[in-house]
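Service request form, structural biology core

Requester: graduate student, group of Dr. S.
Request type: structure prediction, single chain
Budget code: on file
Notes: please return the result as structure tokens.

Sequence provided:
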Amino acid sequence: MSPATATKKESATETGGRPARAGGARLAEAFEAITQLPALSEARRRLMSLTHSEGQSTGDMAEAIESDAALAIAVMRAANNGAGPPARVGGVQEAVDALTPGGVRVIASSLETYDPFDGDGAVRRTYEQFRRHALATRHAADRVAEAARIGQPDELAISALLHDVGKLVLAQLYGEGYSADPATETPEERIRRERRELGIDHALVGAVLVRRWGLKPQIAAAIERHHAADADGHAAVISLADAIVHQSSGHRVPLEGMMATAERLDISEDSVRALLYEFPHAGTQRRRASEPCPLSTREVDSLRGLAEGKVYKQIAQELSLSVSTIRTHLHNVYRKIGAVDRAQAVLIARDRGWI
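Core staff response, request fulfilled:
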């Protein structure tokens, strides 16, 4: 099925106008259509240029791939479904390392593309809306995870980038008419309506598709549970990031739901306020680690506190440690990375992508 049919409206309504439940064959066709999702032409062009350039790091290519969900899907599927047992790579940078730049180039060159200025208006609008929300949620998830001190950023990036892929499947099955205006319907209301009217919801459908692609179970679980009332870990990070993106777009988002998610992530109300204020204006991407980090988790946490302008006492209180322990951690940091003071330590760590 060509990408141009990905938003085709099908006659699937019952008496009363509600969509009929899809049969297995139609669902399989919808899955296949989204598997062949076209890439943004400019994103593919930039990636192809990187694969031909000498001295480009896998981190540079990973950033280009993560700018477009279709590129990320194609690369992650290829890395996880090669010859032999699945590698189960968790992130795009791992996938690029496994595939090599030449392999990434072959994959990218095989994808169809769309241009926001050409082609069918409804088709490109659907793809571009999905891509932009996915990318914004990925960036917000980086910020939320940092505040919550939750690791595995590359795996989280993929989960956030694909968190709404199930919406494309449902649009393929039922047409865009099944969607409501996000300015009038909250994400939670949408999920409840999908379950009531369709018998399924986009989070569950997206998780099923991601599992079919052979991606890690943890990625599928985060996608499936990101609207769950008791979501935790990466699912909770995506839930809060998604809410922040919707709120910044002027959509209805219950603040009490955001705060409940933040509480499960041990993020303070002040931190949530800062995230809402900063996003999307601050919008800088996280730097990828250029080399393995020699610091322990507690040393990184202590250094991150310094980077946020906090004094030893504040850092100690947040980490439930003594001031002398924080001092020891930071002295170890200086010794390990060859820094002479806190300013240099922060600069080195940020430059190398450790904080």
